[in-house]
Amino acid sequence: MNIAVVGTGYVGLVSGACFSEMGIHVTCVDIDSEKIQQLKQGIIPIYEPGLEELVKKNAKAGRLEFTTDLTGCLDDVEVIFSAVGTPPDEDGSADLSYVLAVARTIGKHINRYVLVVTKSTVPVGTARKIKEAVQEELDKRGVSLPFDVASNPEFLKEGTAIKDFMGPDRVVVGTESEKARELMDRLYKPFTLNNYRMIFTDIPSAEMIKYAANAMLATRISFINDIANLCRLVGADVNMVRRGIGSDSRIGSKFLYPGCGYGGSCFPKDVKALIKTASQNGYDMKVLQAVEAVNEKQKTILFEMLNGIFKNNLTGKTVALWGLAFKPETDDIREAPSLVIIDLLLKAGCNLRVYDPVAMAECKRRIGEKVYYARDMYDAALDADALLLLTEWKEFRLPSWAVLKKAMRLPVVVDGRNIYEKKEMQENGFVYACI
To answer: Residue 266 catalytic?
Structure first.
């Protein structure tokens, strides 16, 4: 089976590599010629555990190819996945210009039946727009060719994307025709042989499932952060509260971890887009507006705690940051709490020393030389008046407290992910604050 995947970002590259691992011939397409050249050389533009090995293995086997020319492979493929970016516009809506550009290219150049599958996260109604764009180009050419459009949202978690794709807990597919359904069923069967978990729906429902899932997870995060902030005011322990409510089988414990806010490429963008979609249809998503407001406020909470410790006098203080990525096992800092905190600390007159195992280059690309990029976690803490933990990387979980205390000028630790024990920190002589 031959397929094309348009877009070699996070979703497209992982999807292409995993499909090729199952024996499918995959052509990955991107307009970025430099990125394509790097991929041909085995250089991976993103950090994702296991991805580099998978790409190199299948490229060597001839099952995974890279090109900038979509038109050159259209006569050979049965399925075309559109995995291009859908960045948020200024009003919060998803920018569909790249998605529709792919659709128009397909309409201009196909000469046989193809199934066009949307893999990008797109608002409800996008498949209809894609179908119209393809048909419009066919009409311009004066040709009548059959084609189908389907929706196949991704549910990959950064850091475990390969595992998620190879052993999905569900595969959601929205189709309009039996032929499209049979093609998608055949394509995904190798991934679901052990436990067949394909959910077939109509296309609008498939498009909505992705947004609704991310919105629910974001809601749980903002909910527990709201509870954590109230716990701090009334003297309750949010970790005990979390365990107590998480033991209820109707609630469960996942995504009930208090912290300094969610970030990344999905939750912030998708919550905004869902709010905007509702607004465009005359509906006010009050719960999700609150979810977004709580999260934006939560990104400032560590700065407020630090400001309180130093009695509103942070000028000239040296602050160490452990973690820049929005979560462990990724170099993604899009919408990360670290960017908000860095901005607030710099405006307050602080000197910053930062360290992240993989996101340093991405941070430097985003903010330049405004901060000192440390060699390791202890170098970041050297002569620091305070340390802020922002990302719960494994190497931060059990540091040498003696080395850390010796390196720092003042033993102040603000834990943005609640991974340390207050009693242990105090016994080691640290001033400790957490969510």
So the answer is: yes
Please answer whether residues 424 and 351 qualify as being in contact, where contact means their C-beta atoms are separated by less than 8 angstroms.
no
Residue 182, helix vs strand vs coil: helix
Query: What superfamily does domain 2-201 belong to in CATH?
Result: NAD(P)-binding Rossmann-like Domain (3.40.50.720)
pLDDT digits (tens, 9 = 90+) for 300-325: 999 999 999 999 999 999 999 999 99
Q: Model pTM?
A: 0.89
Q: Which CATH superfamily is domain 301-434 in?
A: NAD(P)-binding Rossmann-like Domain (3.40.50.720)
What is the rounded radius of gyration, in angstroms, for the C-alpha atoms of the chain?
24
Options 18, 28, 266, 434, the catalytic residue: 266
DSSP three-state, residue 434: strand
For the chain, what's the residue count?
A: 435
**DSSP output for 334-377:** TT-HHHHHHHHHHHTT-EEEEE-SS-HHHHHHHHTTSSEE-SSH
Distance separating alpha carbons of residues 89 and 181, to the nearest angstrom: 33
**Cβ-count burial 273-294 (b if 16+ within 10 Å, e if not):** bbbbbeeeeeeebeebeebbeb
Pairing of strands 2-6, 114-118: unpaired
Q: CATH number of the domain at 211-298, please?
A: 3.40.50.720
